[in-house]
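Good morning C.,

I know you're traveling, so I'll keep this short. The sequence:
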Amino acid sequence: MIRPATPDDVPAIIHMIRELAEYEKALDQVETTEEQLREALFGPAPAVFCHIATDGDGGVAGFALWFVTYSTWLGRHGIHLEDLFVHPGHRGAGHGKQLLIELARVCVERGYGRFEWSVLDWNTPSIEFYRALGAEPLDEWDMYRLTGSALEKLAATESPR
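The tokens, ready to paste straight into the viewer:
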């Protein structure tokens, strides 16, 4: 079953974020706290959303955390999938596919024009899974990121007048 996350799911989501980061060899980069995630998902102005996959007993099997984007070319919103994770013991049972189906439905129901995400270039099992669903890589695009001191330095740069 796929359902929207509730505040009670936050500890499980944090645990899965850490498991995903460990798999991606980046556990040391996780700074998110339960309080931060609870505020982001359930505060007065949520800007991120989460769906939960449950197992037959109602336990959390996986999650998909996403946010709304906007395409100036399409003139419509879209969804960016930030994280998709299914516990290793639940993989192969269709939970990941069901999470993606649910987000595709959200896109279609809301008239959104895109459903996008990033995947590490070495993550062959995920790449094969996404391609089997019909997803295509954006070979012409490279992702860039500003964080930490580089972000602070740019923000402190005085704009020319």
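Safe travels,
E.
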